[in-house]
Design goal:
about 110 residues; hypothetical protein PF0899 fold; three-stranded mixed sheet; 2 helices; about 30% strand
Amino acid sequence: MHELSLADSMVQEIEAIMEKEGAEKVFSVTVKMGRLSGVEKEPFEFAFPIVAEGTKLEKSKLIIEESPVIVKCKDCMTETVLETPFAKCGNCGSRNVDYISGKEFLIKSLEIE
């Protein structure tokens, strides 16, 4: 379960930010998680309070914003949201696409004091 190690790394990263900012408490952590990020939402939600225990994040609320998979077609220049796991344009069916979103996993915001 790599979500446990991701949660642990995230807590360490947030603690470093808190030290740099002189913060003492975290009220909430908002994470942006793409559908193709490779991170499973439920295991991550389970792991976060375990690794946060005994840290300044112990009582913080975890908010996960799931982002859809959006591709931009290099042929017809259309951006579409993928509903299937196949990377193809929703307009013309081309597989010649770039990912715009859906692979990210990042700390979007912190509510600290």
